Amino acid sequence: MNQLPIQGKGTLKELIVSQLIEEALTSRQMVGTIIAQKNVSAQAIYKALTQLEKDKVIRRQGTIYLIHPQWIESMQLLLNKVGQTTAGLQPRKKPDIRTFDTITDLGRFLIFDFCHYPNPEKQRGVARWKFMYSLIGLSKEEIAEVRKQFKNQKWTILCGSKTIVDHFFKKTYEKMGARVKLGMPWKENYDLMVVGDHLCEIHYEAKTVAQWKADWGKPKTIKEFNLERLLQRMHEPTICKTIIYYDQKRAKKEREKIELAWKTA
Predict the structure, then answer these.
(1) First to last CA, the chain
(2) How far apart are CA 126 and CA 221, in angstroms?
(3) Which domains does the chain have, with CATH numbers?
(4) Global confidence as pTM
(5) Minimal CA–CA distance to 255: which of 200, 174, 193?
(6) Phi first, then psi: what are they for 85, rounded to 5°?
(7) Contact assessment for residue 65 and residue 58, using Cβ atoms and an 8 Å cutoff
């Protein structure tokens, strides 16, 4: 893959990428947005989308197009190289705030996007959660991607809750390659995941956290766990927000804290 697959100021490909950097769009939305700004045919836009996808500059997730994580990483590496000879040039540190309408949409973002954020030094992925995240209801593709990420980044997960349901998901995560410890208090009002030098704060509505606590805490045996209700909640409207930071010092500090807690608990 070329490190600079889009060249030429104001080109169609450059315009497409600039739009997708701002927000994910369907092909129909992309055509409408581009035609409003540039005298170009829909056929040319579809052709450019196909080529950008082939070059791994963008990718499709369902019906929407997103910037491809591999292209982001190539740009990050290029910035790092330039930064060695250009004083003051640093990756952008402005937080990236995103909102999701369902837990399922949030989960897909974490699996297919955040877990692919640049990690050139192959550092271990780490997380602090209040409750273990459910894998029930994910597609075969999504499960395969989770397994791949656990294997590649050797995740360490510390979870505050330690119910029967948490233990059930802990065993599943461990079989897929992650390290998990339960009963590890987390006082912040968000969950946290760290990939490379990026941190993702995951914020849920208070009612979602309360429902989660009730659903995970009620069963006395795993057979009593209400799977139907779980699947309903995954698709129910609820506002989830992620705030992503690029912060080398904080990422290193959080990773060290989690690894120390893992070893000493």
Answers:
(1) 44
(2) 29
(3) 12-75 (1.10.10.10), 92-264 (3.30.870.10)
(4) 0.67
(5) 193
(6) -115, -10
(7) yes
